[in-house]
Amino acid sequence: MDFDTLVSFTRQFALVWFFVLFVAIIAWAYWPGHKKRYEQEGKKILEEGDE
């Protein structure tokens, strides 16, 4: 395995890894169970701004 092959493999692996990571973060953020928590946090910020 020469250097160019190693670099090519590393770039492809990194691309796939970051894509999977991106999809996982988006899925976690939009998971239905998190909706109530996000709504509570949003209301909390608006209520604290009135003080």
What is the helix content? Answer: over 70%
Assembly type of the chains comes to: single chain
The first-to-last residue Cα distance is 65 Å
* Class derived from helix and strand content: mainly alpha
Strand content: under 5%
- Detail the poorly predicted runs: none
Tally of DSSP helical segments = 2
Largest sheet: none
Question: What's the alpha carbon Rg, rounded to whole Å?
Answer: 20 Å
Number of strands: 0
Order of helices and strands: HH
Strand and helix map with partners:
Blueprint: H1 3-29, H2 35-49
Structure keywords:
mainly alpha
Fold and architecture overview:
This protein is mainly α and 51 residues long. The protein has one domain (3-49). It contains 2 helices and no strands. The protein has helices spanning 3-29, 35-49. The termini are far apart. The mean pLDDT is 90. InterPro entries: Cbb3-typ_cyt_oxidase_comp. Keywords: Membrane, Transmembrane, Transmembrane helix. The chain crosses the membrane at residues 12-31.
In short:
The chain is mostly helical. Helix content is 82%, strand content 0%.
